[in-house]
Amino acid sequence: MNDSLVIAGKSYGSRLLVGTGKYKDFDETRRAIDASGAEIVTVAIRRMNIGQNADEPNLLDVLPPDRFTILPNTAGCYSADDAVRTLRLARELLDGHALVKLEVLGDPNTLFPNMPETLKAAETLVKDGFDVMVYCSDDPIQARMLEDIGCVAIMPLASLIGSGMGILNPWNLRLIIDAAKVPVIVDAGVGTASDAAIAMELGCDGVLMNTAIAQARDPVRMAGAMKKAVEAGRDAYLAGRMPRKLYSADPSSPTSGLIGS
Length: 261
Hints:
It is built from 9 helices and 10 strands. The chain is of the alpha/beta class. α5 (140-149) packs parallel to α6. The protein has helices at 26-36, 59-62, 80-93, 115-127, 140-149, 170-179, 193-202, 211-214, 219-239, and strands at residues 5-7, 10-12, 16-19, 40-44, 69-73, 99-102, 131-136, 153-156, 185-187, 206-209. The protein is 37% helix and 16% strand. Keywords: Cytoplasm, Schiff base, Thiamine biosynthesis, Transferase. The active site is at residue 101. Residues 7-254 form the Thiazole synthase ThiG domain.
């Protein structure tokens, strides 16, 4: 069954997107990403060298763009102007690559998104020809505004970046999912495989994570677990769970035709 994730007109077999930060070295980065099965790999342009520093190791030597879709992001940006400038640099470094992840942070403690600046940056980037995937709060109204601007994917947080707290507000996520006509990808807060499965069971189109894999005791093994969790959650969503029946038992076996009755 063909069940591809389609973003900006391109199909992907994996619904797990992964980051590249916080690993002990590039070797571990590549082994974990291979284990995850991810095809889209996000890179913080302000923190990772993809060619802007000629005398430093280049991540693209480990994760070549002909094998992975590199998704430059604006981690560390606190204003629309900084985010736009950073992604224009990324486009130059990646030979006109248009698919980007926008995040404009509100403060360094929570890393919660600054939504007014995010909306401002998104509008500028879309007009400038970028395909914008956007990190945002789990506010259904602002998610709709970002879609109306022309963003190609909406990426609400499950909980704070790097917190590992899982999905704290599934109801808001469902409101966003039910209204969206573009992919909805949970971004931030996943801590373990069950969090990823829940996100997919809710109907999310994908999950993006970094810390949950990179900071696990065994990142490569956790990457494999996340791959399976995303696949299982997606299958469960497509299969359709049984209805919840409060205070109403329903035996697994038929009650008629019992032996001895």
